Amino acid sequence: MVKKTLALIIFSAAFVFFMPYMQQGIQYLLTGHEQIAELLTNVFSGGDTGNLVRAFIALLSIPLIVGLVPAIVFWLVRRRWSPIFMDLIWVVWLLQAGALAAVFKA
Q: What's this model's pTM, rounded to 2 decimal places?
């Protein structure tokens, strides 16, 4: 219990200290999402189904790219698949989905 409390305090202090850098990283994530969504408007129609598919692909593409780059480097070095590949994808997806939900305008 003491270790978990100490870890919570340390992570909270690190979060407060590195918040400007985290905000910039989240902004890059959102900018990348918007650029991919804009590129996909040329492929999919403007209807409801086309917009849904475009948003779905744009939401999945950034975490997959961010997860694949270190996984491929890990594979080139170790010749086996990265054990944290899916964990990294989930973390990036959760950050991106949270940021998109925070800036969503109905």
A: 0.82
